[in-house]
Design goal:
The complex is a heterodimer of chains A (138) and B (202). By secondary structure, chain A is an alpha+beta fold. Chain A has helices at 36-44, 130-137, and strands spanning 3-6, 10-13, 18-22, 52-58, 66-72, 78-83. In chain A, the strands form two sheets. In chain A, strands 3-4-5-6 form a four-stranded antiparallel sheet, with no helix packed on it. In chain A, strands 1-2 form a two-stranded antiparallel ribbon. Chain B has 202 residues and is an alpha+beta fold. Chain B is globular, with a radius of gyration of 18 Å. Classes of the chains: A alpha+beta (138), B alpha+beta (202). At the A-B interface, strand 2 of A face strand 8 of B.
Chain lengths: 138, 202
Amino acid sequence: MLLISCPNCGPRDETEFHYGGQAHVAYPESPNDLTDREWAEYLFYRENTKGTFAERWVHSTGCRQWFNMLRDTVSYEIHSIYGMGQPRPDIKSTGQSSEPTQPGEFTQAGEFGQAGEPGLAPGAASPTATTPISSEGV
Amino acid sequence: MNSVRGARRSPAEHLADAFTSGSVPGTVTITEIPYQAMVGVRVDRASDAGARVASVTGGLPAACGEVTGTGSVHTLWLGPTEFMVVAPEEAHDSLGGSLVSDLTTALGNDAGQVVDLSANRTTFELSGSHARAVLEKTCALDLHPRVFKAGTAVSTELAHIPVMLWKTSAESYRIFPRASFADFLGRWILDAMREYASPEVP
């Protein structure tokens, strides 16, 4: 069970919230100009990040307000909670991962990665919390 | 009008006898307070309309947990721009009161809404020295008095259903489940209360 700190209501159980998928998916500026494929990618294609992921949540049982959250999809650690419309905060890892990235290990970078984000290797953004739970997500 | 009132059935009316027999006076009791007038209000507190609405309700709460109002009309915080006004049955316009029309007039044509939600929820009053123990069987919030103080109301989950939980005094809680959940929650609380009817096993 995640304990999520709603910006309005404070820490509440995960069951009070609903998940809203990936955050910061901008509506196309001119949807009519998109090809079917581009439109389908806007509608349905989302990142499948292993590591720190920006996502939307709504406190459906409480204040019914949406907010954004930076959550590690491996360790479930919540790095940041910020309002709708705010840019994704730049989470700097304070230390290096105790587990160096193995050659060939899955990283999310390149055309699907967030611009300016160093490869989202597992543990890269959460120096401390990956070790005990790593088997769960791998 | 009175004939309509006489035909009305509250959501947990069929549990009244069970509530009476299941209550343990002095330890934990449950009653239904039916037909309270409730009005859902959505308005920006900082706006002129918010000030006018606040003058009718006796203030609008500013943050989660706060309850404003004096006397019989209280306003519970549901969200940054969403509030629930709770008043006795007689305050409803159909019974000679003017709560809904007063709020509608106060809002005027400004952005927001005033909706009569009196039939949306019913009210359970759970009180007694073990009321907190009953709630703690299902409520994930910290109900210790140092955190959850009298005069606080939050929307949360009890027995996996969404409710408003309002601590009206040190040992008394008002629970607002939606009408369709009243039967389930009433029976759930009765079951949770059952152990306190017997002497405590040391």
